[in-house]
Amino acid sequence: MAILPRTGAAAQARPAVLLPRPAAVRLPSLRHVGPNWYASVMGTAIVASAGAALPVDVPGLRAVLVAVWALSAVLLAAVLAARAGHWAFHGDQARAHLRDPAVAPFYGCLSMALLAVGGATLTVGRDVVGERAALAADVALFTAGTAIGLVGAVVVPYLMVVCHRPGPGTASPVWLLPLVAPMVSASQGALLVPRLPAGQGREALLLACYAMFGLSLLATLVVLPLVFARLVHHGPLPLALTPALFLVLGPLGQSTTAVNQLADAAPGAVAAPYASAFGAFAVLFGVPVTGFALLWLALAGALAVRAARRGMGFAMTWWAFTFPVGTCVTGAAGLARHTGLDAFVWLSAALYAFLVAAWAVTAARTAAGVVSGALTAAPAPLRPATARTT
Q1: pLDDT in tens, 4-32
Q2: Average per-residue pLDDT in the chain?
Q3: pLDDT band at 378 (very low <50, low <70, confident <90, very high)
Q4: Which residues are CB-contacts of 222 (< 8 A; sequence separation ≥ 6)?
């Protein structure tokens, strides 16, 4: 039966029904897309760049790396757009993230995402876009990523001191994120040093990269003891945060990568005595740091297995299994170049196998979480570690 509108006197006798005005267009799915989503870009790009750095030749690998690089570039564009929408439509939540000591350090991921995709473009993406376009893209992303990273390395610790004021025993591996970004700039800048004309500019960039290496390394040496003291005195991290322990591998692997790549770039940028010294420093620094990285990998892996046995579910923190391990791959590959030892060749290959497996699982679980909406919903409270001793 059709319902026809009233006309005439009947329409005047009955008051008009006012329809509600449509609500303003909102994008609720972006409300909880925080800066930690840049970790998915970093973790994808490092699969491409670490694969290109491997000191072994795997048939067909290059084509796969090109596809992974393309995916990382698409992810970067998507996350940048989502984060822009987050700030535009949910500015209150974005400002709350800056005031949250658990979230603010993830702003360091923006810098590293730009740098990681830029480096992968120059080493892998050039097969598709050409050398000139790849270099232009890398320069743009390196410049933006380095500027953002240096600002974040100051602003986030400033907020921690002035606004966050974290209590005793709350140190977290995520505190390292804004501090390791300049180290990524140091390693990626080494790729650009030989592409500058010989002279002041080339030497200045090389030494600026070493300065960023020192900035990040010394800051890491300040924070890392706090993280270990938190573990010793207060026990394991909450289950969902346990994968973040792998973030400690980031400054370790990235610093080893940086000194090896800078040593490769030093000849032609500085005088011969210094170039030789930089080459020796790459081995003298990289080998002990790699040893400590393997120790931490074993410790973090044991704690991750313990957390999995106690019901650790999937979370975006699983991306910590990717980029930090990838930096250890590139670090071991650099040591293989400078020492000629097969042991580092096998180490880089083994770590890369772990990286690919971790990336495949994490990427699949992330895609499923985005489709279902579970990862864009309000975050659930962290589950504390249980007191079981077995």
Answers
A1: 444 444 444 444 444 444 444 444 478 88
A2: 90
A3: confident
A4: none
> pTM, whole model, 2 decimals?
0.89
| From 27-36, 180-189, 229-238, the region with the lowest mean pLDDT | 27-36
How far is the C-alpha of 77 from the C-alpha of 368, rounded, in Å? Answer: 20
Q: Are 255 and 213 in contact (CB under 8 A)?
A: yes
Average pLDDT over residues 370-390: 66
Phi then psi for 286, rounded to 5 degrees? -65, -40
**Predicted pLDDT of residue 32:** 84
By the 8 A CB rule, do 255 and 218 touch? no
Helix or strand or coil: residue 293? helix
Cα–Cα separations (whole angstroms), residue 380 to 32, 110, 236: 11, 24, 19
Do residues 322 and 48 touch, judged by C-beta distance below 8 A?
no
Q: Which of 259, 330, 331, 338 is nearest to 49 (CA)?
A: 330
Is the pLDDT at 374 greater than 50? The verdict is yes
Structure tokens at 264: 């490769």
User: Which structure tokens are listed for 13?
Assistant: 């006798």
Residue 269: phi and psi, rounded to 5, are: -105, -35
132: CB partners within 8 A, 6+ apart: none
The pLDDT, as a whole number, for residue 22 is: 45
* DSSP SS3 for 352: helix
Which pLDDT band, with edges at 50, 70 and 90, does 3 fall under?
A: very low
β-bridge partners, 267:
270
Residue type, 18: L
Directed axis angle between helix 200-234 and helix 249-265, to 10°?
160
CA quadruple 289, 290, 291, 297: dihedral sign:
positive
Q: Would you say 138 and 121 are in contact if contact means Cβ atoms under 8 Å apart?
A: yes
Comparing CA positions, the residue from 264, 176, 184, 171 lying closest to residue 218 is 176
Residue 195 has pLDDT above 80, yes or no: yes
**What distance in Å separates the CA atoms of residue 181 and residue 171, rounded to the nearest whole number?**
19
